[in-house]
Design goal:
Blueprint: H1 3-27, H2 33-48, H3 61-85, H4 90-95, H5 99-110, H6 117-134, H7 143-162, H8 171-194, H9 197-203, H10 206-231, H11 236-239, H12 246-258, H13 264-280
Helix pairs in contact: 1-3, 1-10, 1-12, 2-3, 2-8, 2-10, 3-7, 3-8, 5-6, 5-7, 6-13
């Protein structure tokens, strides 16, 4: 990997980590999580609309829908639900790493992919790391947030598996469908479960709109498109191990912005989870 590509992948991981931090900042101003998620998806729709050819792909339509619903609704919705439920950001960032072990499990059962004993060992240790974090006294009132985080990671894994059938489709097409479905479903759920949607929209502060636009434009489009750009030069196995870095950058940002200092239990559990996920992608 060239030096400029190393810098790019590091920047992408910084942006991925920042999505959780800025998301928590917005939620702390009483913007409901489902509404926040729908607005983030709306930003993506607006930005990609000029580049969308308005043609519905005939191939892999089922996989495209599964990917779009899983990523646009499941991942986005449960990300912000978990951040709202948790008093601290760190366990949500660490727990998001479970997406890769979940993807291994789903690939084994639904795609009949075979994995070595070493991979299964690290899949198990990654889940044990999350269980270990659950014993942290600071998380006594945040256990449900870990459950929501696990659901977010599970939907991310589904999207990852489904994307293997959509990788031949245009990137703009897949992301536009994903964001459109995410926006429609999440805004409906927000109206139904959260209520007062119009009133809340009028109350959103200007700086919070900046963070919402940042989440949609810079993270959802900029960071993800840059990742797809790197896939043109390198195999997935070369790029994926860097995913272990985004929780590190995210935790650094939570310390800077929220002054969060992970406890010993959370630190050890985080090392187990992040280390396991990294090794899953390295061992054969």
């Amino acid at each position: 990997m060239t030096f400029k590509h190393y810098l790019l992948i590091l920047l992408i991981m910084v942006l991925f980590g920042s999505a959780f931090v800025f998301g928590k900042l917005v939620l702390n101003t009483d913007v409901p999580p489902l509404l926040f998620g729908s607005l983030r998806m709306l930003v993506v729709v607006i930005c990609l609309l000029p580049f969308f050819n308005f043609k519905i792909p005939k191939e892999n339509l089922k996989s495209l829908f599964i990917f779009s619903f899983s990523m646009g609704v499941g991942v986005t919705g449960f990300t912000y639900l978990s951040l709202q439920e948790s008093n601290i950001v760190s366990p949500v960032i660490i727990g998001s790493q479970l997406a890769i072990p979940f993807a291994i499990i789903l690939s084994n059962f639904f795609l009949n992919e075979k994995f070595s004993f070493n991979k299964w060992f690290f899949v198990i240790t990654s889940f044990l790391g999350i269980i270990f974090i659950g014993f942290d006294p600071e998380l006594i009132n945040n256990i449900f947030a870990l459950v929501l985080t696990a659901l977010m990671a599970f939907f991310y894994a589904i999207a990852n598996v489904a994307s293997r059938d959509t990788n031949k489709l245009n990137i703009v097409t897949t992301n536009f469908f994903m964001a459109s479905i995410g926006f429609v479903v999440l805004i409906f759920l927000s109206f139904f479960f959260e209520g007062n949607t119009i009133f809340i929209l009028k109350k959103i502060q200007l700086d919070m709109w900046f963070f919402i636009i940042y989440s949609g434009l810079i993270v959802s489009i900029g960071a993800h498109m840059s990742l797809f750009y790197l896939y043109k030069f390198y195999p997935v196995g070369k790029v994926l191990p860097f995913y272990a870095l985004f929780p590190v950058f995210g935790l650094i940002q939570t310390f800077i912005i929220f002054n969060e200092i992970p406890s010993l239990i959370m630190t050890l559990g985080g090392i187990i989870v992040i280390g396991s996920v990294f090794l899953i992608q390295k061992v054969k």
